[in-house]
Amino acid sequence: MSKYQSFAALHVPGDPVILFNVWDAGSARAAERAGAKAIATGSASVSTAHGFDDAESLPLELALANARRTVGAVALPVSVDFEGGYAVDPDAVAANVEKLAATGAIGCNFEDQVVASHGTAARVMHTIEDQSARIAAIRWTVGPDFFLNARTDIFLIASGDTHDATMADQAIERGKAYADAGASGFFVPGLADLALLERVAKAVPLPVNFMAFPGAPEAKAVAETGVARISHGPFPHMAALKAFEDAARAVFAG
């Protein structure tokens, strides 16, 4: 079984694969030693670790080099958070993902928020048609096995108290369209309402990815909604960095 196949097979609704997101080769090796079944990077973690902001501030060549080193450090399949693909045009995005695939990565996250709008008051998303065209171009370019985890930012850019059935239905519409375009999975970061999560997981014909965060529902309850993947986003790196800073403060204060 190839790494592509073994990674895809880990996505079982109700028995989700757990991805404790890493940021470099060293953290990937630590996750592997800890018992990870696969490795996934988090874009914010990678960017912060290299001294850059999130939202594609990390230069593409550095992102690709980090992916290559991470892949080479472990025996496990590695998926890379590739944000918006470092381009808008479908062909340009596909060419960049082809470069990512050449690093040995078996898949990536690919978001539908317009990356240029990150950090602004009015964060916007690509239309369903435009994002579907981008996904289709990637699929045509990298072939059938690359695990393209299509991320929707519907819930991430809206506060949790606004999440409702209408928003879930909008996400479902995107999930179905992305599936038709060739996506392998559907990622709904920011969604923590278990009833809405179950609604999405049942309606979208793709393995659904939940992002864990401090204060989120526990993994067992999340699994019962039918999700097939639980990732941890930037939070492992944030915790590691805090532990480092706390230890440094103790030394300097001593």
Structure description:
The protein is α/β, with parallel strands linked by helices and 254 residues long. It has one domain: Phosphoenolpyruvate-binding domains (TIM Barrel, Alpha-Beta Barrel). Helix content is 46%, strand content 11%. It has helices at residues 3-9, 25-34, 43-49, 60-73, 90-102, 128-142, 165-181, 194-203, 219-223, 235-253; strands at 17-19, 39-40, 78-81, 107-111, 147-151, 185-187, 208-211, 229-231. An eight-stranded parallel β-sheet has the order 1-8-7-6-5-4-3-2. The mean pLDDT is 97.
Summarize the helices and strands and which ones pair or pack.
Blueprint: H1 3-9, E1 17-19, H2 25-34, E2 39-40, H3 43-49, H4 60-73, E3 78-81, H5 90-102, E4 107-111, H6 128-142, E5 147-151, H7 165-181, E6 185-187, H8 194-203, E7 208-211, H9 219-223, E8 229-231, H10 235-253
Parallel strand pairs: 1-8, 2-3, 3-4, 4-5, 5-6, 6-7, 7-8
Helix pairs in contact: 2-4, 5-6, 6-7, 7-8
